[in-house]
Amino acid sequence: PAKVAAIDLQFFPEGGSLISGLRSNVAFRAVNASGKGVDLNGVVLDSRNDTVALFKPHKFGMGSFELTPIAGHSYRAVILDDRGQPLTYKLPEILESGYVLKVKDSTENLLSVTISHNLQTTTAQGVYLFIHARNIVSVATQYHLARNHAVVGISRNALQDGISHITLFDSELNPVCERLYFLPVKNKLQVDIRSDQRE
Questions:
Q1: What H or E segment, with its residue span, contains residue 63?
Q2: How far apart are the C-alpha atoms of 34 and 45, rounded to whole Å?
Q3: What does pLDDT average to over the chain?
Q4: Alpha carbon of residue 149 to chain centroid
Q5: 5 CB-near residues (< 8 Å, 6+ apart)
Q6: How far apart (Å, rounded) are the C-alpha atoms in residues 147 and 159?
Q7: Terminal-residue alpha carbon distance, the chain
């Protein structure tokens, strides 16, 4: 019989974890045995076999989908191999409580950071947002989540070129979410080459 190509399918919840009742972005990466991205169509099923999300890579076997998980349910992704047979992959464990961090470009100069939690509390929850790149701090500020939710605008001009670490800390300064964000280099290196030989 012909050998079926193996597919490695991994899932990466934005911010680090899937939290019960909170809508999350889930990135995924699908590669073959040689590490090359593969094209596929997939579905996410809950423990009752209901379809809760569809997904397909955008490019290089990578993409994302949104999911609102519920504690007590298990979730699995199903794709078809090159023979049309189903392959099943487990999604990360669902945590009963915690924080979700979403980051996206809002405008050309503004970064939108959405912070949500499902903690049982009657008072405003204080959180700290810390952004740094190469040991240079860009943002360090505190926010209060009065209704379990906040949307924060961050100027892209405040960030360093390259990869920034966006970390969310709870009121006791425990890190609860982290996200990487890439800002393209603004000032490209200008090189002027001249010969010291006279023609």
A1: strand 62-67
A2: 28
A3: 88
A4: 18
A5: 32, 33, 81, 82
A6: 28
A7: 70
Encoded amino acid at 92, one letter: P
pLDDT of residue 42 exceeding 60, the answer is: yes
- Helix and strand numbers (H, E) in the chain are 0, 16
Q: For residue 60, give the amino acid letter.
A: F
**Residue 33 — pLDDT band, cuts 50, 70, 90?**
confident
Are 123 and 147 spatial neighbours (Cβ–Cβ below 8 Å)? no
**Residue-level pLDDT at 83:** 80
What is the Cα–Cα distance from 95 to 72, expressed in whole angstroms?
A: 9
Contact 82, 4 (CB under 8 A): yes
User: The pTM is what?
Assistant: 0.81
Q: If you ran DSSP here, which 8-state letter would residue 58 be given? A: S
